[in-house]
Amino acid sequence: MLSPDLVGRTFKGADTTTVSAEAISKFAAVVGENNLAVAPPTFAISITLDQSQKLLQDSGLDWTRVVHGDQKFEIKRPIIAGDKLVCSSTIESARVMAGNEIVTVRSDLHSGAELIVSTWSTLVVRA
Amino acid sequence: MSNLQVGQELAPKTFLINRALLVSYANASGDQNPIHQNEEFAKSVGLPDVIAHGMLTMALAGKYLSEINGSEAVTEFSARFTKPVVVPVNTDVALIISGKVAEISDGFAKVELTALCNDVKVLGMAKGVIKL
Questions:
Q1: Domain with B80 in it: what CATH number?
Q2: Which residues of B touch A118 (CB under 8 A)?
Q3: Which residues from chain A sit within 8 angstroms of residue B110, using beta carbons?
Q4: A10–chain B nearest CA distance, Å
Q5: Could you give the CA distance from residue A2 to residue B22 in angstroms, rounded to a whole number?
Q6: pLDDT tens digit string along B41-88?
Q7: In whole angstroms, what is the distance from residue B85 CA to residue B94 CA?
């Protein structure tokens, strides 16, 4: 169970992810995208999934029981090869519904001071 | 592409999902959850079979959005994962994505998406915003 005082807190990552052309082309190949100049729209998840799990590992969120409920992206500009991105994650809300805990995690990817992509994941933690 | 009209239905596109694609997506995304690759494990946690990553289905719907005006034109994209896409061994599962232009304003178009597998909607409230 998530500690309620964590809601609204932002955990900023220490890691910088440098986006490689190879990572973009691997992701693009899966969806059949030939344009490799920019990353496909959902590419950010390949960084934020791992980063948000690391950032929130001590939050009490049980990742082994998590089912992905919904996902949203706001893309300020497309991610490109060479971007050096730092992730910060915030538990925006947590509530219990029918015994399951519903947690919304926002993860932002910044390049320096510039916000590149914001993602929101709603996670259903099965009881 | 500025010739989109509100209410316009966009041509459907079929994507094929198989076990090999799940492995490729796992490697590209870093999501190595065994429910997407290991049949025995998937069944042990109560699933009918291996299921596709919800984010793979969403990535393919993202490709559909990208085809409207390029990947760089997609500024917002959201979806709910309503039903799992079950991927049996040696099977190509057809994911059919279609879209409808819901709104156009200030140089942006909102496109509502439908994602069907075996006539079942696998994404809910799926929509994207495209810069025109």
A1: 3.10.129.10
A2: none
A3: none
A4: 22
A5: 31
A6: 999 988 999 999 999 999 999 999 999 999 999 999 999 999 999 999
A7: 10
